[in-house]
Amino acid sequence: RTFVSEEVPEQPNNKNKKNGKIRIHIFIGDH
């Protein structure tokens, strides 16, 4: 299982804001 964590610029209307960035968790492969 490959775990990738990305931080992208904050998007308006997003309720999961942390320190001005949104943490995106992407799971690649078998879950």
Structural class: mainly beta
Portion of residues within helices: under 10%
**How are the strands of the largest sheet arranged?**
1-2
Provide the number of structural domains: 1
* Major sheet attributes: 2 strands, antiparallel
Gross geometry: rod-shaped
SSE series: EE
Our Rg estimate from Cα atoms comes to 11 Å
Give the rounded overall mean pLDDT: 62
Number of helices: 0
Protein name: MIP22408p
Organism: Drosophila melanogaster
Question: Can you walk me through this structure?
Answer:
This is MIP22408p. With 31 residues, this protein is mostly beta strands. It is 0% helix and 52% strand. It starts with a strand and ends with a strand. The mean pLDDT is 62.
Protein topology:
Blueprint: E1 2-9, E2 21-28
Antiparallel strand pairs: 1-2
